[in-house]
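INFO batch 0412 | record 1 of 1 | parsing
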Amino acid sequence: MALKAVIFDMDGVLIDSEKFWTQAELDVFSSYGVQVTEELAAQTKYMTTQEVTEFWYERFPWENRASDLENKVVSKVIELIQNQDCTMAGVQEFIRHLKNKEYKIGLATNAPLRVAHVVLEKLQVRDLFDTVHSSEFETHGKPHPAVYLTSAKNLGISPEYCIAIEDSHSGLKAAKEAGMQTIVFTNNDETIHSDLADFKILNFRNALLPVFGE
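INFO prediction complete | emitting tokens
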């Protein structure tokens, strides 16, 4: 079945930013009396920012729930993305290569849309993307397939003609349940394997795959 679209996850795929979310979570929530432990923080790793805020509030409720901690976390992450080198090596060239082969290109992320726009601007690839979609506009984030189903709809392409590039079990599950093929991106970690991935990319500089006719 000929592929027509490639949909990228963002954190851990386009940019190495998951450490930024961890740092922002620690800085912001700790300042409101939340006891952010490594064990608990690990549970929030692939949640949406709204889900993360609710997770910590349920365990360590702070006085003013309307204090917009979610927005403060997002603003801190954006600051870190803008000021630090976090671009995945070779990813811009990889995206341009796919675009030159006439694939439709999408972004499907659990992160808020304003973070996605900052990332695409940093990478200078915004013009290469045909759709950019966030789980903040869906009832559920990944591993629910909604963000991928909407992305495919926005591209005007049926999910079975789409392939998703993900770094997490949660994201791979979302793409699979949307009816897409999947690629796990490991950032040069050869020990990572997933039963939910049809293909594996170690890095974007040597990402030749038969699925792209290469």
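INFO post-check: Helices lie at 18-30, 38-43, 49-59, 69-83, 91-100, 113-123, 146-155, 169-177.
INFO record closed
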